[in-house]
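It is worth pausing here to work through a concrete case rather than discussing structure prediction in the abstract. The textbook approach is simple: state the sequence, then state the predicted structure, then interpret. We follow exactly that order.
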Amino acid sequence: MRYTALFLFLLPACLLSASALAERAPLLVPEVVEELDHATDAFTQGLFFHNGFLYETTGLRGSSRLRRLDPETGNVLASRSLPGSLFGEGGCVLNGRAVVLSWTAGRALRFALPSLEPRGEWGYRGQGWGLTWDGRRLIMSDGSSGLIFRDQRDFSRLGGVRVTDGGEPVKRLNELEWLPGPGLVLANVWGAEQAVAVDPVNGRVRFRLDLSGLAERAGRSGHPREVPNGLAWDPERKLLYATGKKWPRLFALRPPGEIMDTDTQEAR
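Step two, the predicted structure:
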C-alpha cells in the first residue's frame, strides 16, 4: 500500500512535468531576405526604425554610440558618442526621440531624431539592458527573467512581468523590440542564438526565433561575446532586421507570416 500511495503521489508531478515540456514555445526559422554590410567596430546593443532610418546603439566604455544607418546599405550616416564613462545598452524611439540606456550608471539618455542632438536624461535604479515602446509605455529588461514597465513621461516604474517558457523562467533577457501585429515583445537572450517572443500581459513565450544560422553566415558562431544582439521591426516592409555584436553582416528577415499576424487578444 505504501508503494501504491507513493506512485499515486508522484504521478501528478510526472504529468505536470510532461505537460510543462509540451507547452514550450515552438522554435521557428526565419527566412533571410537580404544581407547588408555592418560595421565590425559596433558592439551592438539595440536596433530600431524611425521615419525610414535604422538606428543602432552600441556598447563598451569609451566607444558607446547612437548611430543612424542607411537601411538599404547598412552604412553609418551619422553618429553621436555617449559620455566616455558610460557603457551604452539598448534603446528605442519614443514620441520622435531616441532613449538610450546605460548598463550600470542608471542613466537613460534622450536624443532628438534624426539629428542625434542630446535632449536630457532620466535616472533609474538597477541595470539597463534592453528597451522598447509599445505606444503606451516603455518596456525594459535588466538581464533577469523580468520585463519592467515604465511611464513614458518620466521613466517611473509601473510594474512588470516574469517571462517563462514551458513554466520555466527565461533569464538574461537583453535587447527588446515591439512587434505591433501580434502585440508581442521580441527579446534577444544573452549568450543564446535565439530570440523569444513574449506576451507582455502574462509573460509567456509564444514562439522562439532560431538565429543560429545568422551567426554562421556572419562568421561569428561560437564566439562567446560576439553573439546575436539587435532586433528592429520595419513597419513599411514588414521585415525584421537582426545583427550581432561586431558582426560584419546585418540581416533582413521575414518571420513566418501566420505568427506575425496572430492576434493575442483572445489569449489575454
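Step three, interpretation. The chain is about 10% helix and 45% strand. The two ends are 44 Å apart (CA to CA).
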